[in-house]
Fold this sequence. Notes:
The chain is built from 28 helices and no strands. By secondary structure, it is mainly alpha-helical. This is Tetratricopeptide repeat protein.
Amino acid sequence: MITEQNAKRAKQLSAQGFVLAKSGEFGAAAEIFEQAIALDPTDALLYKLLGTIYNELKEYKKALEAFSKYLDLIKDDPKGYVNRGAINLKLNAFNEAIADYKRAVEMCPQNSDIIVWLANAYDTAGQFDKAIAMYDRAIQIDPNNLNIYFERGLTLGNNEHFSEALNDFEYILRLDPEHKDALSCKRKMLMASHYLNLNKQDEKYEAESNLSLSEKATNKLAEGNLQGSIDLYSKVIKNAPKNALAWNDRGWAYYLLGRLDEALDDFAQAIKLEPNYILAYTNHALVLGRLNRYQEALDDYAKILEIDNLYAYNFYNMGVTLKLLLRYEEAIEQFTHAIRIDKEDTDYFIERGLCFEALKKTNDALADFTQAVRINPKMSMTYFHRGNILYDLGRYETALKDFTKSISLDQNFFMAYINRAATLEDLGRRDDAFQDLLKAVELKESHPFTHIKLGYHYIRKKDLEKARQHFKRAQELDHPDANLGLQEVERLI
Length: 493
């Protein structure tokens, strides 16, 4: 029999346990709730809270026991069945999980969230048709809930129904063009569909081991054995000449070997076999860029745009190509498109910032480089570029901090040493600047400007022989100011 005093004490302990749980002290909270239950085992809420805490602790069997006791006391709470269903899923008790979710659906037949949870349980249990039926039912109840389309798309994709999955993700993107997860999944579905369709052509050409020729070739490529991968891909192509994936992958191996013409031919063949093969178009354009055939590369990127007009990386590639052509305003437009789709890619902001810098739009460049730092504070290049802008603005102390941070993240970044040296000189710290230049020339001896700067530093230090050596080396490296430095040395001698 529960005494009034025990019930009151259980409530007090429950309050303490709740505070501990909110502060993340789940172990201590579980002990408190166990004590409370011992005092009042008829309080259903205590079991529910204890189950939630054991779930946080990943002690799923204890969580299951707690939620089951809760449901013994409160049999008409659909959320209780949902909670226990989730635990059963984590314990791989699929039938029990499905039974719990079905019970919750029976109690709330118009609750689309619970129906989606049941669909997910069916999917996890490998009952694909039932999962899709539940997603369809949820959509009928709540047709404006994009999350349901997303969950159905994931299930369709995971079961290799790529066309139907793409339909769901594209529907989401029509209504919410900035839905990053849908955009990412759409791209994965496009790639997966290519891999599925293309690899099927190779399945019958099994070599000595359990790995197919394509898989062996891919392994060779990953190992850096480029010629070995080319030889194997060539066998795949001989056996299955319509395997666009093999043509593309062999093209990539050729590209890495610097055999650009052969790479270009292979990528073109992959495109011919699969006209919507985005990766092949991207690789084809990459080779064209290496060959300075920029307009043809832009034509490839335009074709990709027809296939997928929400592919941020394609806009980025177009921007980079336009930047190489010094068409900065157009490049900025493409980088801006990429950023609208994916606001968390550091490279997009860096490249747009560089275009702003080239156009002398200093404040815009500074804003982009600052955003790049925010996104990736462990990337040396972001601080380097921002340091350059701050230097141009005459904010030398702040620039010095950025160059120092850039060096701390990449101690072999010789340009950061050179630019920090320039900043230190403007701050009157010539000896520190000299040390940075010595480090820079150690990292890259073939950089002529460093030798010029060191030559003048040695003149300042009255070490004319070393000054002559650096100016002479700069002359060998064809720096236009080397002769002036040598003349100055001769004059002082």
